[in-house]
Write a structure and sequence with these properties.
mainly alpha
Length: about 80
């Protein structure tokens, strides 16, 4: 049996397996995608805030702003 005959046998076996189980294959393949999409929708709509930076802007400053830092170390 030559190389291409073996390739044809493997191709026929894969095609037969896909014909019988394509619904299950696509279900298993789509599970991670649906999980991530569902998680993203949950985060956008119902998840609590996860930190972030609160900027407090004062209207009356006693000195000019020389620099800005989120950590508060700039002058």
């Amino acid at each position: 049996m030559g190389f291409w005959a073996k390739v044809e046998r493997v191709d026929a076996a894969v095609a037969q397996f896909y014909a019988r189980r394509k619904v299950w294959i696509w279900g298993v393949v789509s599970l991670p995608v649906l999980y991530v999409a569902g998680w993203m929708v949950w985060v956008m709509l119902w998840a609590p805030p996860a930190g972030g930076v609160t900027l407090i802007i004062h209207s009356k400053l006693d000195r000019p702003i020389l620099g800005f830092s989120v950590n508060g170390m700039a002058g």
